[in-house]
Amino acid sequence: MIDKTALEKRALHLVVADGRTVAPTLAKEFGLSRQAVSNHLKRLAGEGLIAADGATRARVWRMAEQVRTTENFQRAGLSEDHVWRQIFAPVVADLAENVRDIWRYGITEMVNNAIDHSSAEEVHVGIARNALYTQAWIADDGEGIFLKIQKALELFDPREAILELAKGKFTTDPANHSGEGIFFTSKVFDLFDIHSGSLHFMHEDGTEDLLIERPKDAPGTIVLMRLNNDSPRTTKGVFDKFAAPEEYSFAKTIVPVRLAQYEGEKLVSRSQAKRLTLRFERFKTVVLDFGGVEEIGQAFADEVFRVFQTAHPGTQMIPANMTPAVKAMIGRAKGHAAASNPDS
Does the pLDDT at position 247 exceed 60? Predict the structure, then answer.
């Protein structure tokens, strides 16, 4: 007896992964004939869960949107709570409380960012839901988030702004904002994507953060968020992961070191290390994720793990996902630090 619920769920996930191979994969995994699989897929299409492009062997299945809502707002006088209640809340109203909480947090944070920081004329928002996940976007026609951060910190390159966002605790308006919104929003969703200018930063749960450069500039800023409709994640669980024990402060961060390594570069210099460690002293714990970094230079390692660490003993730095070459160079730097500070 075929478990129809399991088959349906698997079919939907296969449609998301590759709509061209859904039928043969289902037939193989569930021991069904192509005709039986075809009937199941037609049933899902009839229920409005999936849709097909093309015919017969050239058919490509895709997820069918059950709802899509978009709206444009004038930024002046706009309230993030108003946008949430009018556009987004109705679409996720029947989902579990933890999922609704994540959506309210992310939407209100990102809309507020557009209101307070973008200097835009308009804010464009939208949300679309299918049988597996919901995704939403907030766009503005303002200056652009990476350029604004570059100017605020007097950075040489707008790509450095992405590294600062990934660290957290950065805002161009410290009197009114904590600098936590983008950091935590990027962590609570399955997918978080910012596109501004020619740069595209994407954080996807379970994968490495990506910095992508596009040949064409995109005006303003576009933020995209996606979350499975049955996600078990909670905002509290994510916040607790980065809080100090028995405290409610944002005390820990995870920094993808590869974001400091631009295409064709190797991490070898002290200036690169200083760029990486900028504002690390604001955290009690910094996890340095070396995923995607094959090797580092002696000067880079020394600046991070001896010079900076000696100057900031209250910040614990934990390297992770190291290649043998990276681990050896960090070990060497730590050895020199221990030798120069025998009483520490």
Answer: no
Label each residue of the chain as H, E or C: CCCHHHHHHHHHHHHHHCCCCHHHHHHHHHCCCHHHHHHHHHHHHHCCCEEEECCHHHCEEEECCCEEEEEEEECCCCCHHHHHHHHHHHHHCCCCHHHHHHHHHHHHHHHHHHHHHCCCCEEEEEEEECCCEEEEEEEECCCCHHHHHHHHHCCCCCHHHHHHHHHCCCCCCCCCCCCCHHHHHHHHCCEEEEEEEEEEEEEECCCCCEEEEEEEEEEEEEEEEEEECCCCCCHHHHHHHCECCCCCCECEEEEEHHHHCCCCCCECCHHHHHHHHCCHHHCCEEEEECCCCCCECHHHHHHHHHHHHHHCCCCEEEEECCCHHHHHHHHHHHHHHHHHCCCC
| Pair (275, 247) in one structural domain | yes
- If one counts the domains in the chain, the total is 3
Same domain, 186 and 164: yes
- Are 174 and 283 in a shared domain? no
> 105: domain range?
67-237
pTM of the entire predicted model: 0.81
| Predicted local confidence at residue 102, as pLDDT | 96
